[in-house]
């Protein structure tokens, strides 16, 4: 009888172990999927930048410094994306977003730019992409929070330590992005 109870206890413990391990595995997969979603949206923004610059450049041939800053920021953001480090990417993306905000602010002060249909089209696509980036960031950070909670709570912490599961880094806003978030400019190109 004691042997049967012991076997039953081992089966229950093994089942719990498997459930916890599989839950951690699913959480890691969700984090990876969330990260892939962020990368897709950031690539979309990176791909929009040259077209937007070209569209606006045709209206403003004398403002090369603005365009150079934007293209340099885009290049840094593309490089940061290759490193897959959320902190580095957040900084590079904040610099790119700041450069784009500068262009948009400049365009708002120059009505001849807003009359260009191409500029309006790119501006709308950029706004949609920014919304998708924000949604992807929320999904990723939620998945990171879920994974990290599983890793630090019992019994997940035991299984995580045995299998070397690591906490993931959230894709957080930089201080500059936080400041802009509370003072969102109205964009009308």
From TrEMBL:
The way this protein sits in the membrane is described as: Single-pass membrane protein
Which Gene3D superfamilies does the entry mention? LemA-like domain
Where does the protein principally reside? membrane
User: What cellular-component terms does GO give this entry?
Assistant: membrane
Mind telling me which Pfam families this protein's record contains? LemA (PF04011)
Enumerate the UniProt keywords alphabetically: Membrane, Transmembrane, Transmembrane helix
Q: Does the keyword Transmembrane helix apply?
A: yes
Q: Which InterPro entries match?
A: LemA-like_dom_sf, MamQ_LemA
> What are the subcellular locations of this protein?
Membrane
State if Membrane is listed as a keyword. yes
Which family is this sequence assigned to? Belongs to the LemA family.
- What is the name of this protein? LemA family protein
């Amino acid at each position: 009888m004691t042997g049967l109870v012991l076997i039953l206890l081992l089966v229950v413990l093994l089942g719990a172990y498997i459930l916890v391990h599989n839950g951690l595995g699913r959480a890691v997969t969700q984090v990876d999927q969330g990260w892939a979603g962020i990368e897709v949206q950031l690539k979309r923004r990176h791909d929009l930048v040259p077209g937007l610059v070209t569209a606006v450049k045709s209206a403003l041939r004398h403002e090369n410094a603005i365009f150079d800053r934007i293209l340099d920021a885009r290049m840094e953001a593309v490089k940061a994306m290759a490193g897959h480090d959320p902190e580095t990417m957040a900084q590079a993306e904040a610099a790119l977003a700041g450069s784009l905000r500068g262009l948009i602010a400049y365009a708002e002060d120059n009505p001849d730019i807003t009359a260009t249909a191409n500029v309006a089209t790119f501006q709308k696509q950029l706004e949609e992409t920014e919304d998708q980036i924000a949604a992807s960031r929320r999904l990723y950070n939620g998945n990171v929070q879920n994974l990290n909670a599983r890793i630090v709570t019992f019994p997940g912490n035991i299984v995580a330590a045995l299998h070397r599961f690591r906490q993931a880094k959230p894709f957080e806003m930089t201080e500059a992005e936080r400041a802009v978030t509370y003072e969102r400019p109205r964009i009308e190109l």
